[in-house]
Structures are given as C-alpha cells and as structure tokens.
Amino acid sequence: MKKHLLFLSSLFLFFASNAQEFPKINPLNINIARDEWGVPHIFGNTDAEAAYGLAWSNAEDAFEEMQEILLVGKGMMGRYQGIEGAKADFFAHVIQADALVERKLKTLPQDFLIYLDGYAQGINRFAELNPELVKVKGTFPVTIKDILKSYVVVMSFLTDASSALDKIYNGKLDEVKTGLGSNAFALNSTKSADGGTYLCVNPHLEMTGSFSFYEAHIASNEGLNMSGSLFLGGTSVYMGNNENLGWGMTWNYFDQGDIYKLKMHPKKKNTYAYDGEWKKLETKKTVLKVKIGKRLVLPVPKKSYWSDLGPVIRSNVNKDEYYAFKYPSFYDVTAPLQWYRMNKAQNYNEFRAALDMLGIGMFNIVYADKEDNIMYVSFGQVPFRSDSLVGLEVIPGDKSANVWQRLHTVEEMPHNINPECGYVFNTNNTPFHSDCETDLDYK
Fold first, then answer.
1. How many CB atoms neighbour CB 39 within 10 A?
2. pLDDT of 391-402, one tens digit each?
3. For the residues 22-34, what does the mean pLDDT come to?
C-alpha cells in the first residue's frame, strides 16, 4: 500500500512540476473604450491583458459566431450543427489535429503561451457571466490547446485541404476551384504629394458569419499597439497597422498541398506500396457526437487512416482506391504565433523575421513602414516540389521522391521590395505583376 501511495505522490509531483502556470488576469487592469463607430480600443498593462480585452470585446459583439470557431477547436461542431457540423469534427480527426497540438505545444515560446492564456481567460470569463448565451453545453472553459487546434483546422480549410478530402471521398478529383478577391497597395515618398508613405488595405470577405471581419485596436505597455481587422475569434489583428508599419492581405492561388493515389496490395487489406516495401496503414478511430433534431445527440463511430504520406481517405465512389493528401497545415501550429509577432514588429527586419516563420498558410502581403519601405510578397506555406510534379491533380504515391519534404522560403517566393517605380499592389492578380514594371525578384 505504501508503495502505491509513494507512486501516486511521485506521479502527482511530476505533473504538478510540469504543469503550465499563467498569471491570473485582473479585469480591472483593462480599459475598453469604444469610438463613435463602436470599434473597441483595448488597453492593458501586459499583452495578455490586452488579449483578454480583445476576447471580451469580440464576445460582446459576436459571441455566437466566436463560438463556432471554438467549437471547431473542441471537436463539438456535430453537437451544434448536426451532420454538417460533424463534417468539421471528422476533418479534424482525419488530419489528427489533437495529436499535432499535443506534440507542438512545448515548442511554442512562453510569452506567446501567456498571451493565448490571457485570451482564453477573457472568453471563459464572458461565458461564465453569460451562460444563457452558450450554444453547446461543455464548450467552456476553452484552453490554449483548443485555440491552437481551431487555428490548425481553420487554416487547413482556408488552404483548401478540406476540399481535397471532399474530392477524394466523392470522386471529384478533376473539379476546378474558384477564388475570392481583395486588394491592397502601397506607395512610397516618391509617389505621394506630401512625401509620405501610404498603405491601402481593402479586404473583401463576408459581411456576416465566422469569416466576416472584426475591427479592433489592441494596445499594451509591452509594445503592442495594433489596429485593424481579424476574423471573429482571432487572437491577434490579422491586417492593419501600428505606429511604425502596416500590411494588407489578399487571396493567392498556388497549389497548397498534394493528393497521392496509393498502390494497394491486391490481397492484404489496408497495405500500400512505398519505396519498394509493403506498409500497413495506421487506423485512426473516433466517435463523432452528432445532434439529431433539437435535443438528441447520437454517437457515430468513424475511422480514417494514416500513412507515411499523411492522412488517407478511401474513395466512396471506388472503394478499391485509397488516397493520401499532404498539406503544410497538418504539421504546423504557428499561424497565431506568426500573427502575434507581426503585430509586435516595430520595423522591417522584425516583420521579415515574423514572415520567415512560415506559419500562415496563404495570402499575398502588401507592406509599408514609416522608414519608406514598401514590399509585396506572394506568401504562404508553399510546398517545394519537383518540376515534373507541379500542376498534377493526383500524384503517384508509391515513392517518397514524389512527396514534398520542405516549404519554399520567403526568398524563393515571388516578392518585390522597394521597386524603383515607387509602388506595389495586388488585386488577386498574378504575383509576377506587382508594380509598373515586371521586375519581380524570384528564384
């Protein structure tokens, strides 16, 4: 008995010593002032306090829409929207978002984790004080892991990975996707009448729903002073400006991931050929909770597979066909960290260092700063592929040589820094025409 007690005591001490402890935020340290248009201006002594205020303000204005993003992170969309919502839960299972966050959490810097925890404290406190507004029982409290998982899933949606799953399952591999539109431009002192540097940010997205924009100004005594727009439930400003620099974002259309057709063993179940060997697919099981009618929630067992090439889906049209698909968002949790670092950047070098993280999956970026620098880059997590594979809708999945292993660096992406003509722009057009000349730097 004593041995058992000693073991339990040691186990408790191990988890207690390894548990993350974050500062408890006092809301009295946060000031939220709304201007004549209702835009919140949020002031905290620390970044984490400002994040708390951002979560609170956003909840005051759009708590229902914010919950949709959080429910994605909790894997509870099926309980909220029934069968349609369960599709998002299944997608999160297929790409193993939970396991990714568990692996990557310890790699994130402490200052960012404190910031995210401040955001979580803000939204949890709002839910605690307004329980009648909570859509699904059990949504709150949310954790840092829930927030990170929501970013993984949403970024995978934005970079078209969910469409890849749908194409595979429904046999629509030749379907052509359509795009969205926005615009942004920047000009330096050589093009302005008053010698100033100007940036125009003009995103075009939905007026309502989870992917509509929310405007806010978030500031702290730790160097945060960012004003601009974000998606509902975002933890930082996604585009806008601080006192030293600013940027806009527009949609871009590179191939953001690949689909691989597996060569299956003619007799052995769930066995595929890879680099001259036969390998077994790893089976991943889950139970989706799906709302039927107004109150009934049913458990729905589902399974998917994992291979050396990434997650695997069996075609529902031809059940002998299995496809793997690999997108950068399945392996990375740093999108919210990159946006946080972009918000904190005070000059071009710091902003560029944030871009070098390659955490955000997509978007053209048009940048300007008070030092008269302007820049355009067709940014994203762009897989580095062999020339022979570029543009293929489906790639043979029996050789590791066909599977991308790294991303293009910012230097390798189409970009344009301080062109002689004095301006850069993007209206969702080709990245190889970003100013008055076609003098874009790229490799």
1. 15
2. 788 999 999 999
3. 95
Strands 258-261 and 395-396: parallel
Burial of 418-436, coded b for 16+ CB within 10 Å and e otherwise, reads ebeebbbbbebeebeebbe
| Cα–Cα distance measured from residue 325 to residue 201, given in angstroms and rounded to the nearest whole number | 34
Across-strand partners of 292? 296
- Report the amino acid identity of residue 388: S
Half-sphere exposure of 11 (CA within 13 A, CB side): 6
Within 13 Å of residue 70, how many CA atoms lie on the same side as its CB?
28
CA diameter of the chain: 84
Q: Is 150 exposed, middle or buried, given 0-12, 13-18 or 19+ CB atoms closer than 10 A? A: buried
Q: List, in order, residues 6 or more apart from 179 with CB less than 8 Å away.
A: 251, 253, 428
Quick one: pLDDT at residue 442?
46
Question: Given pLDDT bands bounded at 50, 70 and 90, which one contains residue 249?
Answer: very high
**pTM confidence score:** 0.91
d(CA 155, CA 159): 6
Q: Are 195 and 181 in contact (CB under 8 A)?
A: no
